[in-house]
């Protein structure tokens, strides 16, 4: 497509109710993918669109879908209420997110357009009752949609007009190939379809052949991640596995990384090993675990977004093992199970205002790196990605950087010049903590958390619906304590702290102001003495003036 003058939402012929919703959401102008995709979709064309994570792909299909449904109801003949839009996503969390976005855009036309999510936590009977009302748009994973089609609680052959496949490049790797092929047999011969993806791979090409008819391909000329003025990307070489734990301890305990952080590892076992290690030093974290109920996972993300805690440890389904083809189960390294293939978190999930992504384990593929890094520097906010790499992994990291750089041969992942000798005094403490985190301790921690979360999810579900304030007190970063806890490790002695450069006077003033604000807020909420519940951090990134001895990148 040739470049044309930028279009605003008001020039796209959208329903005034949609324009009002867009204004309420604070969108002054469309993103590049929205600017190109919405007019083509409104012309009735099939679309194959590639745009990076965080570029606004969900709204790029939700806005034209709502516009076409509203236009049909306003101008077409009166027809029976039926499901006319179907949105397929690879995970339950993404289904919840897509539903939320569509409902926000339909705020002023909610009576005319109803949206249902069949991948939510309700039982099958509740979902069937919801589908009997024939919502205009249904959102769900292929397996859940297919189940309702086979039970005849959802019928699409005579009514479907719009099909959306979101995060298309993940559907096959999540094991939905057979379900998707079976699902397509229940659809009419003619319908408009959109395939939205962050990458174009063989799976997307296969989906294109299955779903699209003479599509327009939008391969936007934009980098896969924001530029260096918005997203800073660093690598730090750690000589040993112990060095990785030591460096992470220093970054978090000495507040060299500020703001909300996501820590990515490659297996669930590693998630709990890292959490139990940090717990030894009174550094609260929580694990986003696909074994937990959906309600619990969504609650973790919600509390993280509200600032209840600043650090989440996560894996993503793609790094639990090689992409599975046509299978619903997979095993990753060291026998970790991908217990719920619909529970991935590396892509698409909206973690708000993430200041830093720390790749504690090196992503196995360039795509996995892009998907993880896409959790920060969203919506014009700044962010940082720091990747820990062992010497044998440097060649693999070089391949990732080569893909990221494209035609621009300049360095993408800058060296993070951390002087390890400055924190050698902490090594014995880290070594002591690492010895405490045994395989048995990890198994006990996983079992304990699953039991507690199941209790919260089942027995307290009704109570929390009636008492939402009490739900805020249900935290996911409380100590697990299956390892031998040594209280002295949570305190940094003066003789060690003296080696760390003092923060500037300005930084000290900021800290005092934030601490005062936090305490006042807690008193207002009646939570005096629970300072750990609300913790405000300083602005993101390292303070270069206050930590110059550690970072000279």
From TrEMBL:
It is found in: Nucleus, Nucleolus. Keywords: ATP-binding, Helicase, Hydrolase, Nucleotide-binding, Nucleus, Ribosome biogenesis, RNA-binding, rRNA processing. Residues 38-218 form the Helicase ATP-binding domain. This is Probable ATP-dependent RNA helicase DDX56. Belongs to the DEAD box helicase family. DDX56/DBP9 subfamily. Pfam families: DEAD, Helicase_C. SMART domains: DEXDc, HELICc.
């Amino acid at each position: 497509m040739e470049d044309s003058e930028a279009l605003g939402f008001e020039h796209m012929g959208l329903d005034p109710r949609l324009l009002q919703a867009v204004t309420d959401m604070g969108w002054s102008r469309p993103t590049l993918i929205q600017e190109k995709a919405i007019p083509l979709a409104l012309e009735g064309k099939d679309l194959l669109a590639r745009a990076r994570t965080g570029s606004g792909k969900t709204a790029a299909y939700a806005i034209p879908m709502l516009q076409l449904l509203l236009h049909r109801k306003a101008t077409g003949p009166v027809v029976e209420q039926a499901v006319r839009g179907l949105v397929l996503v690879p995970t339950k969390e993404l289904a919840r997110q897509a539903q939320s976005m569509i409902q926000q855009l339909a705020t002023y036309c909610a009576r005319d357009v109803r949206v249902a999510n069949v991948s939510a936590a309700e039982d099958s009977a509740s979902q069937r009752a919801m589908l009997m009302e024939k919502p205009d748009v249904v959102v769900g994973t292929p397996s859940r949609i297919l189940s309702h089609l086979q039970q005849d609680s959802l019928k699409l052959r005579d009514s479907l007009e719009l099909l959306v496949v979101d995060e298309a490049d993940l559907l096959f790797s999540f094991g939905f190939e057979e379900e998707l092929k079976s699902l397509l047999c229940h659809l009419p011969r003619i319908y408009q379809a959109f395939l939205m993806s962050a990458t174009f791979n063989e799976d997307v090409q296969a989906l294109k052949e299955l779903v699209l008819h003479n599509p327009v391909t939008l391969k936007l000329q934009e980098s896969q991640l924001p530029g260096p003025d918005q997203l800073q990307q660093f690598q730090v070489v750690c000589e040993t596995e112990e060095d990785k734990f030591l460096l992470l301890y220093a970054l978090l305990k000495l507040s060299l990384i500020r703001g909300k952080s996501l820590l990515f590892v490659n297996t669930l076992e590693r998630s709990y090993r890292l959490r139990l290690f940090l717990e030894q030093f009174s550094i609260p974290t929580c694990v986003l675990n696909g074994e937990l109920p959906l309600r619990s996972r969504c609650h973790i993300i919600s509390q993280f977004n509200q600032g209840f805690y600043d650090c989440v440890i996560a894996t993503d389904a793609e790094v639990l093992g090689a992409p599975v083809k046509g299978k619903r189960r997979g095993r990753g390294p060291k026998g970790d199970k991908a217990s719920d293939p619909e529970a991935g978190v590396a892509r698409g999930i909206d973690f708000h205002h993430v200041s830093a992504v720390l790749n504690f384990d090196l992503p196995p593929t360039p795509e996995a790196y892009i998907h993880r890094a896409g959790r920060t520097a969203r919506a014009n906010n700044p962010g940082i990605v720091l990747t820990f790499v062992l010497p044998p992994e440097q060649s693999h990291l070089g391949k990732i950087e080569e893909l990221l750089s494209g035609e621009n041969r300049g360095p993408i992942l800058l060296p993070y010049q951390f002087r390890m000798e400055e924190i050698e005094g902490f090594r014995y403490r880290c070594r002591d903590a690492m010895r405490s985190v045994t395989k048995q301790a990890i198994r006990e921690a996983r079992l304990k958390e699953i039991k507690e979360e199941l209790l919260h999810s089942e027995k307290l579900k009704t109570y929390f619906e009636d008492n939402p304030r009490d739900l805020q007190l249900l935290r996911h970063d409380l100590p697990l304590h299956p390892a031998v806890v040594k209280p002295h490790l949570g305190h940094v002695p003066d003789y060690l702290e003296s080696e760390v450069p003092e923060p500037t006077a300005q930084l000290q003033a900021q800290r005092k102001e934030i601490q005062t604000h936090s305490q006042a807020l807690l008193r207002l909420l009646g939570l005096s003495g629970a300072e750990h519940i609300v913790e405000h951090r300083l602005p993101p990134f390292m303070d270069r003036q206050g930590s110059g001895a550690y970072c000279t990148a």
